[in-house]
Amino acid sequence: MRDQLGFFDVDDRLKRLSDLGDQLEGFRAAVDFEMFCPDLDATFAYSDGAQGERPPCNPVMMF
């Protein structure tokens, strides 16, 4: 049980990464990733969902 994560361990780790200068936060501040959305939607060509498929993942998140 000593190796089990506590309730706030993930939050503490993310805060520590942020304090150290997380590169992903820097990328998010420098690049507007939503500008890629129209091109990504056209590339993936999702179905219309008429057959009850699961909703598609956000293409910007996958990118």
Structure notes:
The chain has four helices and no strands. It is mainly α and 63 residues long. The longest helix has 12 residues, at 9-20. The model has no long low-confidence stretch (mean pLDDT 82).
Secondary-structure map:
Layout: H1 9-20, H2 23-30, H3 37-44, H4 59-62
Keywords:
single chain, 63 residues, 51% helix, flat
- What does the average pLDDT come to? 82
Overall number of strands = 0
Estimate the strand proportion: under 5%
Compute the number of helices.
Answer: 4
Condensed summary:
The chain is mostly helical and 63 residues long. It contains four helices and no strands.
